[in-house]
Structure formats: structure tokens, C-alpha cells
Amino acid sequence: GQNIDQPTEMTATEGAIVQINCTYQTSGFNGLFWYQQHAGEAPTFLSYNVLDGLEEKGRFSSFLSRSKGYSYLLLKELQMKDSASYLCAVRDSNYQLIWGAGTKLIIKP
Amino acid sequence: SQTIHQWPATLVQPVGSPLSLECTVEGTSNPNLYWYRQAAGRGLQLLFYSVGIGQISSEVPQNLSASRPQDRQFILSSKKLLLSDSGFYLCAWSAFTIRGDTEAFFGQGTRLTVV
Lengths: 109, 115
Prior knowledge:
Order of helices and strands of chain B: EEEEEEEEEEEEE
Strand content of chain B: over 45%
Largest interface: A-B, 22 and 18 residues
Strand content of chain A: over 45%
Structural class of chain A: mainly beta
Radius of gyration of chain A: 13 Å
Distance between the termini of chain A: 40 Å
Oligomer: heterodimer
Number of strands of chain B: 13
Helix content of chain A: under 10%
Mean pLDDT of chain A: 94
Low-confidence stretches of chain A: none
Distance between the termini of chain B: 38 Å
Structural class of chain B: mainly beta
Helix content of chain B: under 10%
């Protein structure tokens, strides 16, 4: 079967750095997405990786290792507004998105 | 720019009543359209997707159905709601490119509570 694993919940301090990991086992791979979802709202797109390596976008970076079936989202200089769930999704060989359950990130002052 | 509209934002319906959720996309043509359901603390479950008018693929057998009467309109329906249909429903669209679909863009979501 297809599977996306993320930690259920993480806690970090304002101003710090946090890394959210995602491991996947899917039938084929055509890219990995990270989304941010605030409580009660729709997910919003953060990043996309299809080749190995690091993609940087301001305070957010995403890393991919296809051989390890592994990605992480790195959030720097954490702000209170970063408190949200972070969803990892993989596009499989049929170009369908397989979603992880999300990681709830709690930021403390 | 492209926008996606989904309504209503919240809905409380009795068991056995019908359902109709509507989603429209503006600013793009021939989008791929999706209906997802998200249970509390869970990932997104794909319910239906459509690559064109009248073309609907169902991922999960259930008492829900979807229709695409126009290029940028996607409707989720049920004739008789069950308690288990409660959840957060999300409509999304993506564009097809030669390098594969773009990322998915989501509507605001509909919080459905079946009582």
C-alpha cells in the first residue's frame, strides 16, 4: 500500500528553527508537496520538490531524498503565526496526490 | 489571476437529507477539479476528481456523487446523508502542464455536520 508518515505533533519556541520530517512509500514518484493548514482553513501551498536537494523560499526550506523516500520542511525564525498543521503529499505514478495526516506545529513564546 | 470559490462555509444537515456543495473556479480553463474530505486530525481523502466536463472518477465508494456540468463548476451531492458524512470538505483545482499537474489550490472548505 501507499503510505506517508509524519510526526503527529511538534512544539517549538518562537525565533527558533524546527524540522518536520516526512517519509513515504508510494507506487512511483512524481514530486512531493508541502502545504500549510491553519485550523479550520484550507491548505495553502508552501513548496514542491521533484529532484534531490534543498529548495529554499525565505524562512521555509524543503529537502528531498528520493533514494531514501524522505523529505523535510525546515522553518527558521519561527513566528507565532507559523502555528499550523503542515501536510506532506506525494504525487504517485498515476499523478494522484497521496496525503500524510499532517504535523501539528505548536509555537510557544 | 485564478480564484476558487466554495460554498457554503458551514452546513448542519439532518440524517437522511440531501446535500449539494458547489465549487467554481475563475481565471483558468479546463482545470483538473477535486473533492476531498478531511476528518479531524487526518490527512486529505480524495473523493472525486475530474479532468473535463462530464468526466468524473470516484476514488472511494460511498453515498456521495459528483458532477461537472460546466468546465469550471464542480458539485458534490448526496441523496441521503449519513452521520459518517460529517467532515471538512475541500474543493481544489490544478492545471495540467507537460511536466505534470501544478500544485493544487484549495477552496475555503465546507464544515459539514450531520445531526
